């Protein structure tokens, strides 16, 4: 009797494993669920340390609805309280998460530092994959830009001075949106919307982005599995790097001199370092203005999205450099000091 039960149990396990294997072969969902489970979550100590660095005097209006028919079309608006109702230059930020996870929540400390310098800062939400696929996030960020222009007086937006920023997957989405804004031919050929910004974009900030799809083929081991799983979920193509339909998402191949002046950075330990370097080289070759920050002498612990951990000297130096870049290209009518000025 016990032998029969044991055989049945083994058979059930084998059938379950076979079913999971077939599911993983046919769908990106098993890999996505595993990646979401593996995704690093800040410890209570890290959260407490970052909250201690959060500047005061910044108000936040959360979950402003951009599109009532799209549950993920929401934004958070950060404003320096000292600015009152003044229209301020605006930085719209797109969060990371490998296209398959993450949200705008948890960005308070980082984005408040930018707002404290005299800017309106907007954190844009988008639908992660595979619930939505390329180019839906680009469309959602574009819709957020149009919304901000249409409601500029309500949210203190200077529509003539706008910038886009993003980290990791958000850097790809922000960069592709910027390409659509600044290059009508690219937008038309790629089938992307063009936000109607009165003066276009004045600047772009890109951290730890995944820009060059051809580099996916060069990764090995766990890195290749992660990259291929994320791109499969985001694009719907199991071999995204070889899919001709996704040509326009391979950003370094399509940049032009019209791309807004940009600030590009990541850490030396970032497995996507070559993506940022490829994007910077391509922009420079196209005649666009690029400022980079690499920290080649830093330890490997300064890696992907290093800029978010403001406890490190490299992240603090990056914040100072990034705010200096923003100040150079967005002229606020309410110039304020921000904590990073004394770092």
TrEMBL record:
Q: Which domain of life is it from?
A: Bacteria
Q: Which GO terms label this protein's molecular function in UniProt?
A: hydrolase activity
Which residues, by range, are in coiled-coil regions?
none
UniProt entry tagged with the keyword Hydrolase = yes
Alpha/beta hydrolase fold-3 domain residues are 91-297
InterPro entries from the xrefs?
AB_hydrolase_3, AB_hydrolase_fold, GDXG_lipolytic_enzyme
Tell me the Gene3D superfamilies matching this sequence. Answer: alpha/beta hydrolase
Q: Which UniProt keywords are listed?
A: Hydrolase
Name assigned to this protein: Alpha/beta hydrolase fold domain-containing protein
């Amino acid at each position: 009797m016990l032998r029969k039960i044991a055989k049945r149990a083994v058979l059930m396990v084998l059938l379950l494993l076979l079913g999971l294997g077939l599911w993983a072969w046919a769908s990106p969902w098993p890999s996505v669920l595993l990646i979401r489970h593996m995704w690093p979550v800040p410890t209570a100590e890290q959260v407490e340390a970052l909250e201690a660095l959060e500047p005061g005097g910044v108000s936040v209006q959360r979950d402003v609805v951009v599109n009532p028919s799209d549950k993920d079309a929401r934004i958070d608006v950060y404003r320096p309280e000292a600015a009152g109702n003044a229209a301020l230059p605006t930085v719209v930020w797109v969060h990371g998460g490998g296209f398959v996870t993450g949200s705008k929540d948890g960005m308070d400390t980082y984005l408040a530092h930018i707002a404290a310098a005299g800017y309106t800062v907007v954190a844009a939400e988008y639908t992660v994959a595979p619930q939505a696929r390329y180019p839906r996030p680009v469309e959602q960020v574009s819709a957020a830009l149009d919304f901000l222009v249409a409601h500029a007086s309500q949210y203190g937006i200077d529509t003539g001075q706008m910038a886009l920023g993003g980290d990791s997957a958000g850097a790809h989405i922000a960069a592709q949106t910027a390409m659509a804004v600044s290059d009508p031919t690219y937008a038309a050929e790629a089938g992307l919307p063009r936000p109607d910004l009165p003066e276009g974009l004045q600047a772009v900030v890109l951290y730890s982005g995944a820009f060059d799809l051809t580099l996916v083929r060069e990764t090995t081991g766990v890195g290749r599995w992660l990259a291929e799983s994320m791109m499969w979920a985001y694009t719907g193509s199991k071999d995204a790097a070889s899919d001709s339909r996704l040509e326009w998402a391979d950003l370094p191949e399509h940049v032009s001199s019209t791309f807004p002046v940009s600030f590009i950075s990541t850490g030396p330990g970032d497995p996507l370092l070559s993506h940022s370097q490829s994007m910077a080289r391509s922009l420079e070759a196209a005649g666009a203005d690029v400022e980079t920050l690499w920290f080649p002498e830093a330890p490997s612990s300064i890696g992907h999205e290093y800029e978010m951990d403001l406890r490190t000297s490299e992240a603090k130096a990056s914040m100072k450099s990034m705010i200096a870049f923003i100040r150079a290209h967005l002229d606020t009518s309410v110039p304020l000091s921000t904590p990073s000025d004394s770092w």
